[in-house]
Write a structure and sequence with these properties.
Radius of gyration: 23 Å
Structural class: alpha+beta
Number of helices: 7
Order of helices and strands: HHHHHEEEEHEEEH
Helix content: 40-55%
Distance between the termini: 41 Å
Largest sheet: 7 strands, antiparallel
Strand content: 15-25%
Number of strands: 7
Shape: elongated
Length: 219
């Protein structure tokens, strides 16, 4: 299958189905699913685990920290202890604030990722099944109803839904999505029902890119 780095917003439903080699009546075969899992990986956002003490120690490493540390050393050499204490306090405060903001960002990542820990209705080998959203691959045919979290980026094939995607885009109003539109992973279906084909999974989704930006964010 061709690399799926395409603008699915502009592509028609027929073009997407042809590109992903998807049969709307049968869905993907299990052999195709296994092949695509190897190619694209699981529908999840990997996270690098770091010890808390290491995260805090890293706040004393960097251009700003080096400048303050250089001033502290210079103040000590010159015997300017008031400046030494003041800059030391600033260094610790700066590091602590950076660490707290990073911890908040990590919690936001966990909250966003938890939305992917859901099941999805998917058509495989001509049979509708409930599976973990982690096992979805590009080309899977899925059905989404009111109350569902969208498990991956989905191109709507049939039906109309109203979605709440405020957590991703900041839009407070429900957005209508119909045939040809893209449903973003992590958004919530408020009304309606639709069948669609998954176009992007994991870190390739709008949700995944958002999580990655949060992970690399710096104060």
């Amino acid at each position: 299958m061709t690399d799926i780095a395409h603008d699915f917003h502009k592509m028609s439903v027929e073009e997407v189905l042809n590109l992903l080699k998807t049969n709307l009546s049968l869905g993907l075969k299990q052999s195709e699913v296994e092949s695509r899992l190897k190619q694209y990986g699981y529908n999840e956002v990997p996270e690098k685990k770091t010890y808390t003490i290491v995260k805090f120690a890293k706040k004393f490493w960097g251009l700003t920290a080096w400048m303050l540390e250089a001033i502290i050393i210079l103040a000590f050499i010159l015997g300017k202890y008031v400046d030494l204490y003041t800059v030391t306090a600033l260094l610790i405060l700066n590091s602590a604030l950076g660490f707290i903001q990073e911890q908040r960002a990590s919690k936001a990542v966990e909250l966003l990722k938890s939305k992917l820990q859901v099941t999805a209705r998917v058509l495989r080998d001509g049979v509708w099944k409930l599976i973990s959203s982690r096992e979805l691959v590009p080309g899977d045919v899925v059905r989404i109803r009111a109350g569902d979290f969208v498990p991956a980026d989905v191109k709507v094939v049939v039906g109309e839904v109203w979605v709440d995607q405020s957590a991703l885009t900041g839009e407070s109003m429900e957005i209508e999505k119909k045939q040809g539109d893209i449903l973003y992973s992590g958004s919530v279906i408020r009304r309606g029902e639709a069948t669609g084909v998954i176009v992007l999974t994991g870190i390739k989704t709008y949700f995944g890119r958002t999580v990655q930006l949060v992970q690399v964010a710096r104060p």
